[in-house]
Amino acid sequence: MLSEFDLIKRYFKRDRPAAPGSRTVLGIGDDCALLAPTPGKLLAVSSDMLVEDRHFFAGADPFLLGHKSLAVNLSDLAAMGAAPLGFTLALALPGADPAWLDGFSRGLFALADEHGCELVGGDTTRGPLNVCITIFGEVAPGRALRRDGARPGDDIWISGTLGDARLALAACRDEAGIDRAALDAAHGALAARRLHAPTPRVALGRLLAEGALARAALDISDGLVGDLGHILAASRVGAVLDVDALPAGPALARQPRALRRRFTAAGGDDYELCFTAPVAGRDAVLAAGAACATPVTRVGRIAAQPGLALVDADGAPLDLGLRGWDHFA
Amino acid sequence: MLSEFDLIKRYFKRDRPAAPGSRTVLGIGDDCALLAPTPGKLLAVSSDMLVEDRHFFAGADPFLLGHKSLAVNLSDLAAMGAAPLGFTLALALPGADPAWLDGFSRGLFALADEHGCELVGGDTTRGPLNVCITIFGEVAPGRALRRDGARPGDDIWISGTLGDARLALAACRDEAGIDRAALDAAHGALAARRLHAPTPRVALGRLLAEGALARAALDISDGLVGDLGHILAASRVGAVLDVDALPAGPALARQPRALRRRFTAAGGDDYELCFTAPVAGRDAVLAAGAACATPVTRVGRIAAQPGLALVDADGAPLDLGLRGWDHFA
C-alpha cells in the first residue's frame, strides 16, 4: 500500500530544475511553500473545490479531472487578467489508487506546464473524493479585470463559444429537447470535450488587462445570465443581452433554437470570459482575440438602468425564465 | 433556504474597514482576491484539508471546528516563521445550516482577528463536509524556518506541551491504558481543549525566524517522532531524543509513564513547534519563549549519524514501536 509521503513523492513532487521565470523559492516538502513575488505586482488568489457527484461524475476519467480541476482555477486568473505563478492542491481520496493518481497527476501537470504554473504544495488525506486547488497569479496594479468597472454604453463581449458543456450534461442525463440526430458521435464528443476539458482563456485575459482593453470581466462558470448579474450588481448598472447573438458551441449550434437560447444564456461550465469594453475599443478587442486565436463576440450593451433585459435578434424582449446556478438552491 | 451568495454574504463577507497593515487590495466577491505583497518579503503558502470523521468527529462543535481549521494552517505559518496575511476558505457542506454556519464563522473569525489574518476569498459548494483553507504569510528572505537546516550538535526544542490532544482522543475512544481516576472532569476538559482548540505558535515562530535563532523547524501534527523524521531526512542528519524530557500536557502528566511516553513521542494533533538551534543560542531561545509566554523545552540533540534514537532519562535506548501518522497506511 502506498503511504501518504510515497504518494506525494511519486505523483506530485517533480525532481527537475525550476522553469525559467519561476518565482518558487521552496516547493513541496516543507510546512509552507515560499514564493518570491515580482516587485510591483499584485498577487491574485483564487480557490475552487470540486466534489464528486456535484462537479464531476463518480468514476470520472482521472486525466480529464486533473485537467479540469486546474482549468477552472486558471479560468479565475484569466478573468482577473493575471499571469499564472503556481498552485496548491489539497486532495481527499477514498484510497491511494495508483492508476487514478497516475491519470490525475498527468492531466493536472499537462495543463500546468502549458501555463508555466507550478504545483508548490498542498495536502493529501483520506476522505470522500474532493479536489481543492488554490491558484496564484500576478497582475499590475490598476490593470486587474474586476467586476465593478462596467459603465453604461460598454459593449458586452464573450470569448469562445457557450453551451456545449451544458449540452453534454443534458445528453448524459437524457434531458428532453435534444435533437438526437443532430448530436451524432462526432458532435457528442466535441460537446463532451467542452464539459470535461474546458480551455481557460488565460492569454486573452492577460491581453485585455495589459492593454487596459476591458473595464470589467469574469469567467462564466454558473451560466452567463447569472454570472453577468454579478458584474451588473458590482458595477451598479444594467444590461441588454442579445440572446440570439450568443455564440453557440459547434454541437449546440445544430440544436433547436429553444435549447440553443437556454444553453448559451444559462448553461454553466463554460469557462469563457464575459467582459465589458468601451465602444471605442472594438478593434483593439478584436485584435487581442486574434492575437491569441480566441474568438470574441459582441453580445450586448451595458445600460444605466439596473436589471438584465434579454432580447432576440430583432430586439424584442425574451423571457426564458433563466437564472444562474446556486449550490444551495 | 439560504442561497450560496446569501450564505457568503451573511457569514463570511465582513463589511468593515481594512485592518491597519492589511495587504488586501480586493477581498471576497470577485474572481480572485488581490493582495499587495510587502516589498522584499517572501510569500509563505500552505493548504490544509479537514475531513469529517477523519480530522474531526461528525457533529463536532462548529465554533471549535472553525477555530481548529484555521489554527492548523496558522501553525504551518508559525513553523515557517512567517507573519500571517490572509487566507482562502473552500467549504463543502451537506446543507446550508444557519446555526452551524454561525458557529463555524464565529470560531474562524475569532482566531483570524487574533492574528490579523483576513479571509480574502474561497468557494462554497454542497458535498460531504470538508474544510480546506489555504493561508498566506510573509517572511524575510533567508529567515524562513525550513526543515533542511538542522546541523549535528544542534539542540532539539519543543514549544508548549505534548500529548494532551492524543489523550483526549484516547478518552473518546475509550482506549486501554488510561488512568481514569487521574483523568477527572477538569483534566478531561483541559485535554479536550488541546484536541479541539489548538494554539498555533505564531509569535514564537516569528521570534525564532526574525532573530535567526532556529536552524530548522516544523509543526508537530502527526506525532513528534514521525514529524522530527522529516527534519532529519531533509537535513540528512540523525537525532537522539530524550523521551522522558518531553513536556507532557497537564492531563497527560498525571497518567502512567507508558502512556505518557507514547503520547508525547507520537501523539498527533499537538500543533506545537519542534525546532533545532545551536547550543550557543540556548539563552536566546529561552528569552524568545519568555517574550511570547510560550514554554520551550530542550528534548534532544541532532547527530551526524542518520537515524532517530529514543532514550530514557538515563540515556538508555527505548524501543516504543512508534511511528508517525499516515493517512493511507
From TrEMBL, chains A, B:
<feature type="binding site">
    <location>
        <position position="76"/>
    </location>
    <ligand>
        <name>Mg(2+) 3</name>
    </ligand>
</feature>
<comment type="similarity">
    <text>Belongs to the thiamine-monophosphate kinase family.</text>
</comment>
<dbReference type="GO" id="GO:0005524">
    <property type="term" value="F:ATP binding"/>
</dbReference>
<feature type="binding site">
    <location>
        <position position="269"/>
    </location>
    <ligand>
        <name>substrate</name>
    </ligand>
</feature>
<keyword id="KW-0808">Transferase</keyword>
<dbReference type="InterPro" id="IPR036921">
    <property type="entry name" value="PurM-like_N_sf"/>
</dbReference>
<dbReference type="GO" id="GO:0009228">
    <property type="term" value="P:thiamine biosynthetic process"/>
</dbReference>
<dbReference type="InterPro" id="IPR010918">
    <property type="entry name" value="PurM-like_C_dom"/>
</dbReference>
<feature type="binding site">
    <location>
        <position position="221"/>
    </location>
    <ligand>
        <name>ATP</name>
    </ligand>
</feature>
<feature type="binding site">
    <location>
        <position position="76"/>
    </location>
    <ligand>
        <name>Mg(2+) 2</name>
    </ligand>
</feature>
<feature type="binding site">
    <location>
        <position position="219"/>
    </location>
    <ligand>
        <name>Mg(2+) 3</name>
    </ligand>
</feature>
<dbReference type="InterPro" id="IPR006283">
    <property type="entry name" value="ThiL-like"/>
</dbReference>
<comment type="function">
    <text>Catalyzes the ATP-dependent phosphorylation of thiamine-monophosphate (TMP) to form thiamine-pyrophosphate (TPP), the active form of vitamin B1.</text>
</comment>
<dbReference type="GO" id="GO:0009229">
    <property type="term" value="P:thiamine diphosphate biosynthetic process"/>
</dbReference>
<feature type="binding site">
    <location>
        <position position="48"/>
    </location>
    <ligand>
        <name>Mg(2+) 2</name>
    </ligand>
</feature>
<keyword id="KW-0418">Kinase</keyword>
<dbReference type="Pfam" id="PF02769">
    <property type="entry name" value="AIRS_C"/>
</dbReference>
<dbReference type="Pfam" id="PF00586">
    <property type="entry name" value="AIRS"/>
</dbReference>
<dbReference type="InterPro" id="IPR036676">
    <property type="entry name" value="PurM-like_C_sf"/>
</dbReference>
<keyword id="KW-0547">Nucleotide-binding</keyword>
<feature type="domain" description="PurM-like C-terminal">
    <location>
        <begin position="151"/>
        <end position="311"/>
    </location>
</feature>
<feature type="binding site">
    <location>
        <position position="55"/>
    </location>
    <ligand>
        <name>substrate</name>
    </ligand>
</feature>
<feature type="binding site">
    <location>
        <begin position="122"/>
        <end position="123"/>
    </location>
    <ligand>
        <name>ATP</name>
    </ligand>
</feature>
<feature type="binding site">
    <location>
        <position position="48"/>
    </location>
    <ligand>
        <name>Mg(2+) 1</name>
    </ligand>
</feature>
<dbReference type="GO" id="GO:0009030">
    <property type="term" value="F:thiamine-phosphate kinase activity"/>
</dbReference>
<feature type="binding site">
    <location>
        <position position="47"/>
    </location>
    <ligand>
        <name>Mg(2+) 1</name>
    </ligand>
</feature>
<feature type="binding site">
    <location>
        <position position="123"/>
    </location>
    <ligand>
        <name>Mg(2+) 1</name>
    </ligand>
</feature>
<comment type="pathway">
    <text>Cofactor biosynthesis; thiamine diphosphate biosynthesis; thiamine diphosphate from thiamine phosphate: step 1/1.</text>
</comment>
<protein>
    <recommendedName>
        <fullName>Thiamine-monophosphate kinase</fullName>
        <ecNumber>2.7.4.16</ecNumber>
    </recommendedName>
</protein>
<feature type="binding site">
    <location>
        <position position="325"/>
    </location>
    <ligand>
        <name>substrate</name>
    </ligand>
</feature>
<keyword id="KW-0784">Thiamine biosynthesis</keyword>
<feature type="binding site">
    <location>
        <position position="46"/>
    </location>
    <ligand>
        <name>Mg(2+) 4</name>
    </ligand>
</feature>
<feature type="binding site">
    <location>
        <position position="31"/>
    </location>
    <ligand>
        <name>Mg(2+) 3</name>
    </ligand>
</feature>
<feature type="binding site">
    <location>
        <position position="76"/>
    </location>
    <ligand>
        <name>Mg(2+) 4</name>
    </ligand>
</feature>
<keyword id="KW-0067">ATP-binding</keyword>
<feature type="domain" description="PurM-like N-terminal">
    <location>
        <begin position="29"/>
        <end position="139"/>
    </location>
</feature>
<feature type="binding site">
    <location>
        <position position="222"/>
    </location>
    <ligand>
        <name>Mg(2+) 5</name>
    </ligand>
</feature>
<dbReference type="InterPro" id="IPR016188">
    <property type="entry name" value="PurM-like_N"/>
</dbReference>
<dbReference type="GO" id="GO:0000287">
    <property type="term" value="F:magnesium ion binding"/>
</dbReference>
<feature type="binding site">
    <location>
        <position position="31"/>
    </location>
    <ligand>
        <name>Mg(2+) 4</name>
    </ligand>
</feature>
<feature type="binding site">
    <location>
        <position position="147"/>
    </location>
    <ligand>
        <name>ATP</name>
    </ligand>
</feature>
<keyword id="KW-0479">Metal-binding</keyword>
